[in-house]
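User: What would this chain look like folded?
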Amino acid sequence: MEERARIDEEHWDSVMESLDILFAKVGVVEERQQKMESQFDMSTKLLEQMLLDQQTLAKQMETTGNAVAQLTINQMRHRQDRPPSPASSDSNEDGGFHHRRQFAPGGSGHGRTTVPPHRATNREIAGHTEYNSSRTYMPKMQFPTFDGSNPCIWKDKCEDYFRIFDLPETMWPSIAAMNMDEKPSKWLKVYKMKHGLGDWASFMAPVE
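Assistant: Here's the prediction, encoded as structure tokens.
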């Protein structure tokens, strides 16, 4: 009986020791899980802040582009509406006078008459100004966003936009990256940390 009791006691001691070790491991696992959750929360907040910064920067770029386009149109209209200088007007009138000089029929030179140069009417000037303004007007175009579907079509739209606005190719990857929706933007975060953006071709290859 004593031997049996001793064996049972040693067995229970072994079981309790195993339970202590198991509880210790569970505590370590829980501690690591808490650290991972806190790191995940920080990463999520950082990603959200980066998305907000990208959206703010995109709006600022759009506002700046519209302001530059409007300023260019106003300057061109101001140049067209500005009257010519007196020197240029005199030279044009003199030139027109000499080129349009005609002799009267039967005259010997002393009775020659002249035809005054043609002066543009207000209607002609307004029509010419409206025509030039219509040629310089650029409609507002929204940059295409990428939601993860049809990357080839998105690539073609991006390149068309870059060429229309004559943007330098070194800026293409950065501008395109700023116009990715939530899922592609999360992928972009990991990709940038490993590889960076690089040039347009090396950036679009993994996107496709």
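The helical segments are 2-81, 86-99, 122-136, 151-164, 172-177, 182-195, 200-207. If you want, I can go into more detail on any region.
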